[in-house]
Amino acid sequence: MNERPRPGDLLIVDGAASVQFAGERALRLRVVSVGEAVPYSNWLWLTGYVIDRHGRATARREVYVQLAGLRRAASPPPAQIDRRAASPPPAQADRRPASPPPAQADRRPAGPPSTSSRSTDRPARSDGVRR
Questions:
Q1: Residue 27 and residue 15 in contact, taking contact as beta carbons nearer than 8 Å
Q2: By the 8 A CB rule, do 11 and 72 touch?
Q3: Is there a domain that residue 61 lies in?
Q4: Is the overall model pTM greater than 0.85, yes or no?
Q5: 1 part of a folded domain
Q6: Residue 89 lies inside a defined structural domain of this protein
Q7: Which of 32, 36, 55, 116 is the residue whose CA sits 20 to 30 A from 4?
């Protein structure tokens, strides 16, 4: 790849991009942002989401890769969202408490705030300020 990736690009990040992604550690990354700073020539920081074989984002990652080692991936089919799995069953929804739990009472004794004995043990300086 010769041009910098852009947000939305789906890339294959494997051993050609960086040794840490060789073999089974290769991944498909949907780019969210590309770092502006270029610490070394043709290396760059990418932020994106790892895309599984079903087209779902599984983890957010920041990777440091060589531009020349990146390849564009074929877009996966759009992820199917099972709405039934996304919301709790009605029986569980009814188990929520009707009102928030009562706040715990303050268990400190009533009275004026305590002062540190350390600040009153020392005599005042000649200018009247305690040390």
A1: no
A2: yes
A3: yes
A4: no
A5: no
A6: no
A7: 55
